[in-house]
Amino acid sequence: MNLDQKTIAVIGLGYVGLPLAVEFGKQFSVIGFDVNKSRIEELQSGVDRTLEVAPAELSLASKLNYSSDAKDLSGAQIFIVTVPTPIDGANRPDLTPLIKASHTVGKALKKGDIVIYESTVYPGCTEEVCVPVLEQASNLQFNVDFFCGYSPERINPGDKVNTLTKIKKITSGSNPAIAKEVDDLYASIITAGTYPATSMKVAEAAKVIENSQRDLNIAFVNELSVIFERLDIDTIQVLEAAGSKWNFLPFRPGMVGGHCIGVDPYYLTHKAEEVGYHPQVILAGRRINDNMGRYAARNVIKRMVKNGIDITKATVGVMGVTFKENCPDIRNSKVIDLIEELRSWNINVVVTDPWADPIEVAREYGFDLQVIDENYPVDSLIVAVGHQEFRSLDGNTLKKYCRWDLQPVFGDLKALYDAKDLTDAGFTVFRL
Q1: pLDDT band at 1 (very low <50, low <70, confident <90, very high)
Q2: What is the mean pLDDT of the chain?
Q3: Three-state helix/strand/coil letters over 120-189
Q4: Which of 122, 160, 173, 359 could form a disulfide with 178 if both were Cys (CB 3.0 to 4.6 A apart)?
Q5: Mean pLDDT in residue range 213-242
Q6: Catalytic: which of 125, 130, 148, 260?
Q7: pLDDT value at position 404?
Q8: Is 305 exposed, middle or buried (CB count within 10 Å of its CB: 0-12, 13-18, 19+)?
Q9: What average pLDDT does range 220-230 have in this prediction?
Q10: What distances in angstroms separate CA 416 from CA 133, 186, 250, 432, one per listed residue?
Q11: Furthest C-alpha separation in the chain
Q12: Where are the domains of the chain?
């Protein structure tokens, strides 16, 4: 049976699964499955709240049908699992969504079917965790009756340039023939080409180190920021000067959240510790990055106190709560660490964000988004996310968002503004 005769089921229609289902749905018969019925109803009405796929693109996927009924999966021959792989409160991998999805797929498995995982995992997870669940639920034997592949997602939420088809795709399979079939499948939609890995473990490892590498690079400049703050040197000015050399990497300090960079390294360190090795460098980078929200809050508080602001009666406005700019994704946002640290000092915090869903923020984090402007002023401001709506503001406009009788502190955590412009407007400035 060739690809044109097969039905593909994409399990999980979030930031990763929906773009994939839509792209395949332009050519092949596709079942887009999600357990969230409201998500299915939303997509059936032509709306994607993640803003990853425009309505016009959704309409192009003429062969894509949505479902929240697991019984509909029995009509597929290829299953692609794209569910989240978060960490728990102790920074350990939480494989619950992956295991549940594997059980659901296993119930629909037939002889000859292929299950491909895209969710980020540690090396060996597909065969050690997912395959036994598939075998138990299906009563079929791995690599005899059904087969597996691993092709890690490389979606960058909010990026309208480096989209799914324009990013080279790593592929792999549980035997050479399946590896080729998986590669052919993705090659049919990925214009940037594919990279066939030698094994599923290699593909799993490649994915998890991509974000671990970026995490460490950001941790380095975050540590520089801490050092230079004590030396009274502007970190951004230092990085711009160093950036005049052709091979200097242009990383900037900041809070590292989201579903990838702030999570994936813990999957690798978990597996390393499982085989008897305690990682040094990776965990050191995680400790630095996990502390940046609290570090930024304390520096703003210190400057407020120096300026004579009574922090126990003060209100700080935080602009931005998503984990990155121009994107509604609030998963694992480190802005929450900043907010919690401010509140631990009995500071009233109001948060605004033009991209975040107010209902989702209230459900996930327990507070309401509010307005910050000249009609609803605050005592100091922190711009935590570089949304385009914030970038268009200047020092004088931002000063109007603060009470006139104070010398407010401005935390420019993304270095969006000219420091002199902010100072001239009357702010005491803190930048990472």
Answers
A1: low
A2: 94
A3: CCCCCHHHHHHHHHHHHHHCCCECCCEEEEECCCCCCCCCCCCCHHHCCEEECECCHHHHHHHHHHHHCC
A4: 173
A5: 96
A6: 260
A7: 76
A8: middle
A9: 96
A10: 48, 38, 16, 11
A11: 75
A12: 3-207, 210-246+256-288, 291-431
Eight-state DSSP code of residue 366: S
Strands 7-11 and 78-81: parallel
How does pLDDT run across 343-357, given as a tens digit for each residue? 999 999 999 999 999
Residues 6+ apart with CB under 8 A from 72: 31, 33, 65
Rounded distance, CA 175 to CA 321, Å? Answer: 44
Give the predicted TM-score (pTM) of the model. Answer: 0.91
Parallel/antiparallel/unpaired status of strands 169-171 and 147-150: unpaired
- Give how far the C-alpha of residue 85 lies from the chain's centroid of Cα atoms, to the nearest Å: 11
Q: Which CATH architecture has domain 291-431?
A: 3-Layer(aba) Sandwich (3.40)
**Same fold flag, 3-207 and 291-431:** yes
CA distances 393 to 77, 147, 388, 397, Å, are 52, 54, 9, 6
Identify whether the C-beta of residue 203 lies closer than 8 Å to the C-beta of residue 152.
yes
Q: Which residues of 11-34 are buried (b: 16+ CB within 10 A; e: fewer)?
A: bbbbbbbbbbbbbbbeebbbbbbb
Does 148 qualify as catalytic in the annotation? no
User: CA-to-CA distance for 146 and 214, rounded, in angstroms?
Assistant: 36
- Pair 86, 259: CB distance under 8 Å: yes
Instruction: Return the closest-CA partner of residue 109 out of 79, 67, 69.
Output: 79
Residue 159's pLDDT band, with cuts at 50, 70 and 90, is: confident
The first and second tokens of residue 104, run together, are 């659901």
Helical (H) or strand (E) element with 11:
strand 7-11
Query: Residue length, the chain?
Result: 432
pLDDT in tens, 278-321: 999 999 999 999 999 999 999 999 999 999 999 999 999 999 99
pLDDT the model gives residue 180: 97
For the domain 3-207, what is the CATH code? 3.40.50.720
Residue with tokens 């160093």: 242
Alpha-carbon distance of 142 to 216, in angstroms, equals 37
What sign results for the dihedral spanned by CA atoms 195, 200, 173, 167? negative
**169-171 and 380-383 as β-strands: parallel, antiparallel, unpaired?**
unpaired
Q: Partners of 64 in the beta sheet?
A: 30
Q: For residue 291, which amino acid is it?
A: N
Give Cα 90 distance to the centre of its chain.
Answer: 19
